[in-house]
Automatic annotation (TrEMBL):
It comes from the Bacteria. It holds the Pfam family SBP_bac_1. It comes from Streptomyces meridianus. Belongs to the bacterial solute-binding protein 1 family. The gene is ngcE. Its main location: other. This is N-acetylglucosamine/diacetylchitobiose ABC transporter substrate-binding protein. PANTHER family: ARABINOSE-BINDING PROTEIN-RELATED, SN-GLYCEROL-3-PHOSPHATE-BINDING PERIPLASMIC PROTEIN UGPB. NCBIfam families: chitin_NgcE. Transmembrane segments: none annotated. Keywords: Signal, Transport. PROSITE patterns: TAT. It is found in: Cell envelope. The keyword Amino-acid biosynthesis does not apply.
Length: 472
């Protein structure tokens, strides 16, 4: 373990990088071509049949790496057992260090066969795709679904799932297994016990936070060490104020997109939470687990998060807590989109590395995971929807999942899906996240934050080494 001074030095470098004061060669190793491996690693293919559409070698083993985060790993272990009923043994490794563990293997041409590329240390998918290191999943989409051979896999997926795996062409490189809703989470019991209602406007939000403060409860907390969590509520808030085109302009790296009036209004609103002392003391130093624990302990009313939080925070959540999700509060009656507007998308991206030994096995494992049995098991285990249509119909859902499902229904067509997070991961996590952290800690004013983020976005737009994407 390094010295305290070394950790302090690293933190300073990270903060400086987030503010654009220094340049960090993030993901530079991925820009190199694979230096070893290749076709000589591939296992011999099996015979294609109706029940084995990819021609998986039935004796070949399969290596899978799963992100050990909010969804845990049991769902993958259960699916692996079903896979093993027909094919070789599955070696499954769980980790939170996806990039540190797998980046050298991707570059060296010795990757696993299937990867859950998720979490704070996920690999930059856009870079991997640009370097030709991820297999096209179109064969999976065109294969017969596991439960009904008359339906292709693409026909059983929730709309928008395939698009989330596309990067500028018709090919699909990622299968986003979970269907995630993002918003503001709270304890229904806490609000009801105090006679409070969820605030639908920002004035109502500030008024409720003031009442909570008098009772010794903070209005908000968040993952200060991973400040991009703030965006889970902030991006749909911006869309409500200025319309979905503002988010599209941000995604497209358009000049002055971040200087839209809706962005400044949203920043000023969230900055007011800090300025009025409505954020839990010490929040900037908390990680996602610590902030969620403070929330489940009743130290703060609200936390911006995704629908995985019900499962991830389960160990510290009181039985009568009643985890509930709501859309971010509206600003006021001038908003362009209704209160019900939320951010929702297919998430938890799985990839099959192109240089994997058993690409066919990786595709088949995904096909197994897209069975109704596996999808329902996922929902039961982790309180989240999957990308499989109708998988949870008729199921008795836990409160958080039920509320997020209802929020999705209430939103109708008013669903936004910012792509900047997966198109430009370094910009989103290191630059935008770092700047938001400074603002939410009171160390940077909203106008300064807007200018700093626009500068970072402009630098990305001008960097010819970064592939660019556009909304159609």
């Amino acid at each position: 373990m390094g010295s305290t001074s070394e950790f302090g030095r690293r933190d300073l470098i990270k903060k400086a990088a987030a503010l654009g004061l220094v340049t960090v060669p993030a993901m530079s190793a991925l820009s190199a071509c694979a230096t070893s491996g290749g076709d000589d690693r591939k296992v011999e293919k099996g015979k294609k049949t109706d029940s084995n559409p990819f021609g998986v070698n039935e004796k070949a083993g399969l290596e899978v790496v799963i992100f050990d985060g909010g969804f845990g790993t049991q769902y993958a272990k259960d699916a692996a057992k079903d896979y093993e009923k027909k094919y070789g043994a599955v070696k499954l490794k769980a980790t939170q260090d996806i990039q540190p563990l797998l980046q050298p293997r991707m570059v060296g041409g010795t990757p696993p066969d299937l990867v859950d590329n998720s979490g704070a240390k996920a690999m930059d998918a856009a870079t991997l795709i640009a370097k030709g290191q991820i297999a096209d999943l179109t064969p999976l989409l065109d294969a017969p679904s596991y439960d009904d051979p008359d339906k292709k896999v693409r026909d059983i997926l929730v709309p928008g799932t395939i698009e989330m795996g596309q990067y500028g062409d018709d090919k699909c490189y990622r299968l986003n297994y979970a269907f995630t809703t993002y918003g503001v989470w709270y304890s229904k019991k806490t609000l009801e016990d105090n006679g409070w209602e969820y605030p639908k406007t920002w004035d109502e939000m500030l008024a409720l936070c003031a009442k909570a403060k008098k009772k010794g409860i903070a209005g908000w907390t968040y993952a200060g060490k991973y400040p991009y969590y703030i965006a889970f509520a902030l991006y749909p808030f911006i869309a409500k104020i200025g319309g979905s085109d503002v988010i599209k302009a941000i995604d497209n790296l358009e000049p002055n997109a971040w200087k839209h009036d809706a962005v400044l209004k949203a920043f000023e609103a969230y900055y007011e939470l800090e300025a009025k002392g409505y954020i839990l003391k010490g929040t900037p130093g908390l990680d996602h687990i610590q902030s969620q624990t403070q929330w489940t302990k009743g130290k703060a009313l609200f936390i911006p998060n995704g629908s995985w939080v019900e499962n991830e925070a389960k160990a510290t959540t009181p039985k009568d807590f009643e985890v509930t999700m709501a859309p971010p509060s509206s600003l006021d009656s001038s908003d362009k989109m209704p209160f019900e507007t939320i951010w929702a998308k297919a998430d938890e991206p799985f990839i099959v590395p192109k240089q994997a030994k058993n690409v066919e096995g990786g595709l088949e494992m995904l096909r197994v995971m897209l069975s109704k049995k596996a999808a329902q098991n996922f929902a039961e285990l982790v309180s989240s929807l999957t990308c499989v249509q109708g998988a949870t119909d008729g199921m008795d859902l836990p409160p958080g999942l039920a509320s997020s499902s209802q929020a999705l229904k209430d939103a109708g067509d008013n669903v936004v899906n910012p792509r900047i997070r997966d198109w430009y991961q370094t910009l989103d996590k290191e630059k935008i996240g770092g700047i938001l952290a400074e603002m939410m800690a009171g160390r940077m004013k909203p106008k300064e934050a807007v200018s700093a983020i626009q500068k970072a976005a402009d630098e990305t737009a001008k960097d010819d080494s970064i592939k660019k994407y556009k909304h159609s």
